[in-house]
Amino acid sequence: MKVPKKSILFLSSVCCLFLWGCSSPDRGGTVLDMTYALDDAAIFWPTAKPFSLVKVGWGITEDGRWYASNEFTASEHGGTHADAPIHFAAAGRTIDQVPLQEWIGPAVKVDVTAQCERDRDTLLTPEDLRSWEKANGPIPDKAWFIMYTGIGTRYYPDKKAVLGTEKTGQEAIPELSFPGFSPESVEFLLKERDIRGIAIDTPSIDRGKSADFKVHQVLCAAGKLALENIANLDRLPAKGATLYVIPMLIREGTGAPARVFATFN
What we know:
Layout (H helix, E strand, L loop, with lengths): L4 H18 L7 E4 L18 E9 L5 E8 L7 E3 L20 E8 L1 H6 L4 E2 L1 H11 L6 E6 L2 H5 L3 H5 L16 E2 L1 H9 L3 E6 L13 H8 L3 E4 L12 E7 L7 E10 L1
Parallel strand pairs: 5-7, 6-8, 7-9, 9-10
Antiparallel strand pairs: 1-12, 2-3, 4-10, 4-12, 5-11, 11-12
Helix pairs in contact: 3-6, 6-7
């Protein structure tokens, strides 16, 4: 029997609400905010337009009412944000074309903080993934696979400590230094496992010294999603959490600021 598409979407929504209810604070669970606030200190790519907020009305009006309003500008790719497939794939989907249910899935965290302390330019390898599965079991279907480097937890929003440089513009690019996924690790996750996307606590899923952004190319070509600059990974368990991503709904967006949080017992 063929199930109508509307019924599938309804059931997916019900399942999401059920998972939320099972892990809500009222039931003894934890809700972990994994988002950095957007402000003047938020970390953006050195060549991108940073976040800027202008208070255009904060005070008492002539007729005695309080009124507050701001204007803001920024690149799509800065602070805690999501990448849509169109970012590095010409035929990829834009932010507004990705269904909401695709932004929700099991959270899997691989801790490579020790390696990153020894080498800021560490690459996650397929061997790291196999080691994680040996210790924790198979990566669940539709999971977000998260690389925990410790860079964000220790240093954000110190630009030099996170990016490897305080410079902006093109002159900063040769000095970028932070860990990332290897193309081989992402190909393993795409071909051998069934993931929603990948995430990291640095400004890019490609390491800072990448010249070709191969990880972005491979991931986006497969139609998968990415999260960058996510917070509080030291408090996220290695498995058992559900990740929720609520990106700003920008029509034809290549990426978007996102509110990211996880629930777990």
